[in-house]
Amino acid sequence: MHKSFLGILGNDEVKISNMVEEIDGEVIRGDLEIGSTQHPIVNGVPIFYQESQEGNCEEQELTNQAFSFKWGEKMTEFDDRMFDVTINFVIKRLKPLGIHSQEDYKDFLRSKKMILDAGSGMGWMSSYMAQHTEGEVVSAEIGDGVFAGYEKCRALKNCHVIKADLMNLPFQDNTFDFIYSDGVLHHTPDCKAAVKALYDKLNWGGVFWF
Q1: What is the chain's alpha carbon radius of gyration, rounded to the nearest angstrom?
Q2: In total, how many domains does the chain have?
Q3: Is 135 helix (H, G, I), strand (E, B) or coil?
Q4: Among 7, 15, 48, 119, who pairs with 184 as Cys (CB 3.0-4.6 Å)?
Q5: pLDDT for 73-82, tens place per residue?
Q6: pTM for this structure?
């Protein structure tokens, strides 16, 4: 975890405690305290969602299990051609904003200060966005593929990878000016509630791609 992540949380009562491992300024193991709540940092990833956490519903657990398997076992590699298809699909949906090419998309990303990749899998799009913006990118994933995502994004100091439930993200409302969520929301227990939960995190004038 980059220590600069603390500033993104928008909470004065946040600190790192019980730090037992730090490598090149990265917190690898320890705890992240937000007020009276403590979240473990495991293999560089702050854990805001845990399988045994009180209040989790059965559907959330099934989603976590399914995507932990998908990203951990089934898709350890991502074909370049498949990624190009994904990027082109994103661009197609952004055409109303005057975005017609990858260069247009990169210009769009460069204009953003706070980006959320909601349901980021193994971090391919998070990495791409972080490389093409001077802003900050938060890569949020409920499954254990998040650890592969951390390794992919680790060298990018503006990319922050967290394990979290999209219905209960640890950020203030109106935080992000671009939220990207591809093929994710229909896997949540309540799609409408998930859309609202993410929309609440969107800043005025921001873009929500889903």
Answers
A1: 16
A2: 1
A3: coil
A4: 119
A5: 445 455 667 7
A6: 0.85
